Amino acid sequence: MKRIEITDSDAGQRVDRLIMKTFDKLPKSLMFKEIRKKNIKVNKKRCSPEQILNNGDVLELYLKDDVLHTKEKHYDFLKASKDLDIIYEDDNIILLNKKVGILCHPDGKDYIDNLVARLKRYLYERGEWSPENSTFTPSLANRIDRNTGGIVIGAKNSQSLKILNDKIKNREIEKYYLTVVHGKMPVKEDTVTAYLTKDERKNMVTVTDSEISGSKKIVTKYTVLDCYDGASLLEIELLTGRTHQIRAHLAHIGHPLFGDGKYGNEKGRYRQALYSYKLKFNFSGENMLSYLNKKTFQAQNIKLLDDFKERKFI
Fold first, then answer.
1. How far apart, in whole angstroms, are the C-alpha atoms of residue 193 and residue 28?
2. Which of 19, 125, 139, 284 is the most buried (most CB within 10 A)?
3. Rounded CA separation 244/207 (Å)
4. In Å, what is the CA distance from 262 to each residue of 20, 189, 304?
């Protein structure tokens, strides 16, 4: 017999899906049969495969041990670096200051050390999460390009991830960036609009002043914070969130980012001067994360600002 107490990490999942993720030798047909025979129960009562599990529920499986085997796994995330810059943390979310050069998620070349792997290692070593007793995997609700630094939101449980994804989709988490661009902006503050078309194959976008087939509207607000000798320090607020929006939009209006080898005029350089430095939570309605509403979080020790003050953008 196995007994599983449902925590925040597992809450919100179906009975059948949690069981199949947990026990690798339990045939699906046998699971359904044992549910019908009441040998699988929730809170000592009959359950259904599609029943949603809540925090504090107790799932009991009165089955032979040989089908309740949990496969031992080698955890690659334990090879990831321990280096994490934590801006804020509570029981549900964690705000991480991603450094330039680090991937958010693994790719073919950098599979082991990336931001989500570092997060998994951190939570595992603190005893807050383990793949052995949780079907939820700590996840990132947003992502930032390798060569852009800044705040990334991590979710510690499935309910938080669901809420964060919804709030990001509905533009209820405001994102602010710092960037250094070539030239002097025409006005101190402006909101500019254009249309963006993405080429998936090339992983590039094109910006046009008029709408064309396949394009999507983009709206970017900028405020000039400082400038000198052909370099302007801007705060950017994304009023829409499209791929490479800031880099492509500013290049389109004649002010490409320093170091941008893709959309700027510095071919071969891929350390664009861009940093996601501030988040504002502006939630509507009540939810598990409502305590974050109206709070603002800001990254510290931003190298881009230091470089600008030292007039390294020339």
1. 52
2. 19
3. 10
4. 45, 25, 19
Token reading at 87: 């801006």
Of 91, 137, 97, the C-alpha closest to 117 is: 137
Q: Residue 205 pLDDT > 90, yes or no?
A: yes
Assign residue 268 a region (left: φ > 0; alpha: ψ between -120 and 50; beta: otherwise).
Answer: left
Report which DSSP code applies to 65: G
Alpha carbon 89 to chain centroid, angstroms: 15
Q: Which residue has the tokens 């669901």?
A: 162
pLDDT-derived band of residue 269, with 50, 70 and 90 as boundaries? low
145, 226, 260, 307: the active-site residue: 145
Give the separation between CA 195 and CA 215, rounded to whole angstroms.
6
**145 backbone dihedrals φ, ψ, rounded to 5°:** -55, 155
* pLDDT band, very low/low/confident/very high, at 268 (cuts 50, 70, 90): low
Nearest to 95 by CA among 281, 288, 244: 281
Report d(CA 46, CA 216) in Å as an integer.
50
pTM, rounded to two decimals = 0.76
Residue 7 banded pLDDT, cuts 50, 70, 90:
confident
What pLDDT, on the 0 to 100 scale, is given for residue 72? 64
Tell me if 65 sits within 8 A of 59, measured CB to CB: no
User: What is the C-alpha separation between 110 and 105, in angstroms, rounded?
Assistant: 9
Whether 2 has a pLDDT exceeding 80, the answer reads yes
DSSP, res 66: G
